[in-house]
């Protein structure tokens, strides 16, 4: 696997918010098929790292390459093409609250559709079978015609996962995708993310090391914006985790 071209390559990456250095001197290579968990205390830089990977943020130092391309050097059109290959789940889920669930799930396909087809779909939804199947897989088959604003936080989180299933990306970048879920549903969602048929590669930030060990192949630990742990998930010891989460 390490012989294949990496899906992600970060070289000496840093990110500053004004005078605050959120990430420093990160080198990271992720190959197709890896399921990488990013762990670390609150404020360690996990969301910042994931935002660099899905192209919503540019590094202030070093270079980020995803599928061999540096998003910061691409035209807007090429960057959109690259972003279609990446499925993102954010902490806020990025759903449209006032529409029915099926439209939010169908939005996973918008990048593949013409504007006319996307607009027509708001009135006459296309591909309902695929949307229904995705909702079934996250346990929300009953919610197809519900208004999104009526769902609970955990249900919304699963709608965002269903949208990802419909998008069928090659790389999934998920920022705390199970934060509002009960333990059984959290495990189910991580199973789904790890086995998306098209997406060999997953980068997921988590607050529960046990989920990382169970559902991921590799664990990267961030502390004050630097990588202090990078090991196969099966080899991450409790002592290493205690170190990672120790109060500074
Ligand atoms: N837009 C911003 N402006 C200024 N500082 C920011 C901004 N976003 C993040 N930071 C700071 O950068 C650091 C890293 O933040 P980040 O959100 O990446 O951490 P995190 O590990 O994801 O935390 P959490 O687990 O609480 O979500 C923190 O100190 C945070 O306060």
From TrEMBL:
GO CC, sorted alphabetically, is: plasma membrane
**Recorded GO MF terms:** ATP binding; ATP hydrolysis activity; transmembrane transporter activity
* InterPro entries registered for this protein in UniProt: AAA+_ATPase, ABC_transporter-like_ATP-bd, ABC_transporter-like_CS, ABC_transpr_LolD-like, P-loop_NTPase
What residues does the ABC transporter domain cover?
8-241
Keyword list, A-Z: ATP-binding, Nucleotide-binding
Q: What name has this protein been given in UniProt?
A: Phosphonate transport system ATP-binding protein
